[in-house]
UniProtKB/TrEMBL annotation:
Annotated source species: Streptomyces xinghaiensis
Pfam families with a match to the protein in the record: Abhydrolase_6
GO biological process, one term: glycerolipid catabolic process
Residue span(s) of domain AB hydrolase-1: 43-303
Protein name, entry field: Alpha/beta fold hydrolase
Keywords: Hydrolase
GO MF entries: triacylglycerol lipase activity
Source species taxonomy: Bacteria, Bacillati, Actinomycetota, Actinomycetes, Kitasatosporales
InterPro entries cross-referenced by the UniProt entry: AB_hydrolase, AB_hydrolase_1, AB_hydrolase_fold
Keyword Magnesium annotated: no
Length: 317
C-alpha cells in the first residue's frame, strides 16, 4: 500500500469527477501554472488497494514541469465506487475504463494545458491494467510507464499472501479483514508468526508508529470505501497474470520501466529483464522500494518528466 507523504492537495490541483462513456471517476487533477509551457497530459492509474492519493506528491512537480496530471480512482476504488459483482472487475473491463478515461481527458482542453501528448502510467496492478489497455488500443497514448510493475504474476510469496486476503474477503466484512491485517502485521513486526494475512500492498500499517494519525485514518477510510469484489477480482489477477511482454513489445509505443532498488511484489531483476525485452527506458529510483511515487516523489517526477518530454518529442526510449 502506498502511504501518501501528505494528503493536502497543492494549489495547482483540485479534486473532481471525470465523466466518461463508462461512468464517472474520482480524480485529482493538476495543471501547469500560468506562464509554464504545456507539454502534455499524464493519466496515472493506481495499484492494488490504492487510489489517486498515491500520486499526490507527484502532482506539483509534474505540473511545474509543464504536464497536466490526472490521477484516478479506478472502478471500485476509494471514491469512484462500483458494482458488487466480481465480473465487473475483469481485467478487460478495467482496461476499457482506462480507454474511456483517456478519451475523456483528451476531449477536455483546459486553457493551461491544451490537448497534446497523453502519457499513461500504471503503478503495480495499475501497470498490468494499463498494459491491457494499450494492448486493446494503443492509439490514444503517446507512451506507457510501468512503475513497480512486472511481466506476469507477483512473486510466489506474495501470491500466497494475496490468496489469503482474497479468501478472507469472501467470508469476512471489510472492517474485520482490516483488523486482522493490522494484528498480523503487528505480530510480524514483533517476530511472532509470519504475518501471512497481510498482502504486498497492505503492509507496514500497524508496525509503523511514524505514520501520522491523519494518514492512518485515511488508509482505513480508503480501505473501507473500496469494493471488496474489486479486491477479490484484481487480487486473483495479480496471482494469475500471464506474461504478455512479447505482445507489448510489438506495440510501437515508447515504454518506461521505473522502480525502486527493492521490490517485494516483483523482483527488481525481473523488471530489469522485462525492460530489456521491451526495449524500454529503465529508471531505478535510489532509496525507493515499491512506491517511488510516495517514497521519492521529486526524483520520480524528474525521471517521468524527462521520459515524457522525450516521448512527446518523438525521441522514444
Amino acid at each position: 500500500m502506498s502511504r501518501p507523504p501528505f494528503l493536502t492537495l497543492p494549489a495547482c490541483a483540485r479534486a473532481r469527477r471525470l465523466p466518461t462513456a463508462r461512468g464517472d471517476f474520482a480524480v485529482h487533477e493538476a495543471v501547469p501554472p500560468a506562464g509554464t509551457a504545456p507539454r502534455g497530459t499524464a493519466l496515472l492509474v493506481p495499484g492494488y488497494t490504492g487510489s489517486k492519493e498515491d500520486f499526490i506528491a507527484l502532482l506539483e512537480p509534474l505540473a511545474l514541469a509543464g504536464f497536466r496530471v490526472v490521477a484516478v480512482d479506478g472502478r471500485g476504488q476509494h471514491e469512484s465506487g462500483g458494482p458488487r459483482e466480481e465480473s465487473a472487475y475483469a481485467q478487460a473491463e478495467l482496461a476499457r475504463d482506462i480507454l474511456a478515461q483517456a478519451a475523456a481527458v483528451r476531449a477536455e482542453t483546459p486553457r493551461a494545458a491544451p490537448a497534446g501528448p497523453l502519457h499513461l502510467l500504471g503503478h503495480s496492478l495499475g501497470g498490468l491494467i494499463g498494459r491491457a489497455a494499450v494492448l486493446l488500443d494503443p492509439a490514444p497514448f503517446t507512451s506507457l510507464t510501468l512503475m513497480s510493475s512486472g511481466p506476469a504474476a507477483i512473486a510466489p510469496a506474495q501470491q500466497a499472501r494475496t490468496r489469503q486476503l482474497v479468501d478472507a474477503l469472501r467470508v469476512m466484512d471489510m472492517e474485520s479483514v482490516w483488523q486482522a491485517m493490522r494484528e498480523s502485521d503487528a505480530r510480524a513486526a514483533a517476530g511472532v508468526g509470519n504475518g501471512a494475512a497481510g498482502t504486498p500492498e497492505v503492509a507496514d500499517i500497524a508496525d509503523a508508529p511514524e505514520v501520522p494519525d491523519a494518514t492512518a485514518a485515511f488508509l482505513h477510510r480508503r480501505w473501507m470505501a473500496t469494493v471488496p469484489e474489486q479486491l477479490i477480482a484484481t487480487g486473483r489477477q495479480l496471482i494469475a497474470e500471464p506474461d504478455r511482454v512479447a505482445e507489448l513489445a510489438a506495440v510501437p509505443l515508447p515504454i518506461h520501466v521505473l522502480s525502486g532498488t527493492v521490490d517485494y511484489a516483483w523482483p527488481v531483476a525481473q523488471m530489469e529483464e522485462m525492460a530489456v525485452r521491451l526495449g524500454a527506458r529503465r529508471t531505478v529510483i535510489e532509496g525507493a522500494e515499491h512506491s517511488p511515487n510516495a517514497e521519492r516523489p521529486q526524483e520520480t517526477a524528474r525521471a517521468l518528466a524527462r521520459f515524457w518530454a522525450a516521448a512527446g518529442d518523438g525521441a522514444g526510449a
